[in-house]
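Final report, closing paragraph on structural work. Over the funding period we assembled a curated collection of sequence-structure pairs, and we close with a single example.
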Amino acid sequence: MYDLKQLRDNLDHIRTSLARRGHDVPWAEIQTLSEERRTVTTQVEQFRHELNQGSEQVARLRRAKEPAEEAMAAMKQVRDRIKDAEGALRTVEEGLTDAALRIPNLPHTSVPVGADASENIEIRRWGTIPSFTSPPKPHWEVGEHLGILDFDRAAKIAGARFSVMTGAGARLERALTNYMLDVHTAQSGYREVVPPLLVNRPTMTGTGQLPKFEDDLFRLKDEDYFLIPTAEVPVTNLHREEILSEDRLPIRYTAYTPCFRREAGSYGKDTRGLIRLHQFNKVELVVFTTPDRSYDELERLTGHAESILQGLNLPYRVMTLCTGDLGFSAAKTYDIEVWLPSQQQYREISSCSNFESFQARRASIKYRPTGRKKEAKTDFVHTLNGSGLAVGRTVVAILENFQQPDGSVEIPTVLRPYMGGLERITKE
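Its predicted structure, as stored:
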C-alpha cells in the first residue's frame, strides 16, 4: 500500500521501479486521480480560508453592532461549497486508494532483475540427492501402492484437486505437523497460534490478497467471508490497527492451518498428486519487527524453514526470486525448493518473504520507539512470513526420496517418535 502523497510525488519513480511487475496497474487513471486530488484539496483549503475570513468579518460586525446578515449568508454559501468539495475529495481519494491497493510492492535493491523464474538465482544447496537402482516412482504411485493415498474417493467426495490420506499416510501428515510446530516453538522461539480459517474483507485486504486476487480465493456465498489461502492472513492481522511497543519486537508466531486456494491460474499444471490442491495443510511463520532488523529476520526465518528439511534429511536448494517472479506484496523472497526424484528437479516447498512496511500500511500496524512519550511519532512495522513448511509437499518429498526397492517408504528418524516408533510404511 502506498501513501497517497507518495503516489503524487513519486509516481514516475514507482512505475519505473516496478517495470513488468506493474504491467496491469492503471497508471493513467492513478495519474489523473492524483492531479484531481491535488486540485480539489487546494479548493477545499481555499474555501476553508474564505470561511475563516468570513467568520472574522461576522465577529467584527457584531462587535461593531452592525448588520451581519449578508456576511452570514455568504458564509453559508462557502460552507455549501466546502461540503461539495469535501464530497468530491472523498470520491477521488476512494478511487485513488482502490487503485493504490492494486500496485505491487517495490522490490528491494538486492533483488536480481529478471523477467521470470528462469532468472532466479541459486544461493545454496544442502543434502545429498538419493540414487536409485531403478527409476523412482512419483509420490502418487508410491502412496496408492501403499494404500495411504486415495484420489478417486477424494474426487467423488469433493472433485478434482483434493486428496484423502488414510492410515500411516494420515499419521505421517500429523507427525510432520507436530514435528514442525515443536521445532519452531521449542527450538526457534515462535509463539503458536490457532487462528480462524474464515476471515473478513479487511483482513484479506491487509495482507494484499484483496482486491487484486479475489478470483483466486474461496468466498462464502451469503456472507462476505473468505477461506484463508494461508495462515499468513489471519496471523498478520492479529495486530491490525494496533501500535506496538518497540520493546515487544520482534514478535514471532507460528500457526498450523488448512489452506484453501482456487488455483485459478494453474490450469493443466500438476494435475496429479499432492503438489497443487484446493485444500492443503501448512505450518506458517510470521514475524513483526522494526525496519532496521527486518532483513536480518528474513535470513533467520529462512534458516528456520531450512532446519525442518535438514532435520528430515531432505535435499534442497535456496533461490532468490528475481523481480519478474516476485510476489505482489513482497520486497524480497527466498524460495526453498526440495528435490523430487520422480521429476529430477527441485520444487518449491517454502517461500520466505520480507514485505517491509507494505502490509503494515494496508493493515495499519505501527510501533512506538522505546523510551518515547505516548504522543511521540510512530512508524510502520515490517512484516515477514514463510512456510515452515507446506505439509503436503513435505509428504511428497518423503514418499519420493525415501522410497525403497520393495515399495515401502523409510520414515525419517526425527519423525519416528511421532509415528509410535514406526520405521517404515509398508503396504496395508
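The chain is about 40% helix and 20% strand. The two ends are 52 Å apart (CA to CA). We thank the funder for supporting this effort.
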